[in-house]
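> example.struct
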């Protein structure tokens, strides 16, 4: 991925690096399973995307809320979004590290409908049972968020003459 990233000039990159060792939800395993080397490798990979952004390129890096050890290595995120801001009656905080891009604007906030749902439906992703598909299901991007990224950042690049 890094070889491809650096192989040419891209108009826009939206990166989804692995979050297993970076996400706050797994911080307890760092000490219990001695996964500090894995954390170092994960943040080193993540920082290749940060470096790309700090070089003047347009990139959004997406990941869940990071734990404090990860933040020390990758820096604080630019924005936190929720699926309910983009038409999905669910909670799943998603962080964006933005370089050369504006923050996403919510497109269809269904918060009031979402809070009427039981907690296990509001936080469906969090309550997924163990199984071979769990990690895959937890890593999917909500369609409303993907559509907002494509529409808003695409328009930004085209309308603001920010392509080059």
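> example.seq
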């Amino acid at each position: 991925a890094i070889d491809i990233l650096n192989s040419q000039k891209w108009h826009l990159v939206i990166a989804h690096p692995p979050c297993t060792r970076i996400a706050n939800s797994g911080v307890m395993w760092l000490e219990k399973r001695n996964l500090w080397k894995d954390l170092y490798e994960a943040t080193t990979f993540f920082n290749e995307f940060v470096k790309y952004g700090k070089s003047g390129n347009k990139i959004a890096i997406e990941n869940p809320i990071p734990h404090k050890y990860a933040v020390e290595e990758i820096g604080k995120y630019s924005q936190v979004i929720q699926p309910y801001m983009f038409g999905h009656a669910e909670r799943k905080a998603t962080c964006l590290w933005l370089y050369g891009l504006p923050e996403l604007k919510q497109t269809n906030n269904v918060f009031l409908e979402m809070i009427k749902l039981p907690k296990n439906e509001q936080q469906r992703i969090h309550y997924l049972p163990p199984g071979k598909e769990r990690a895959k299901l937890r890593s999917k991007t909500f369609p409303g968020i993907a559509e907002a990224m494509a529409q808003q950042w695409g328009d930004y690049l085209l309308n603001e003459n920010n392509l080059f």
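> remarks
The radius of gyration is 17 Å.
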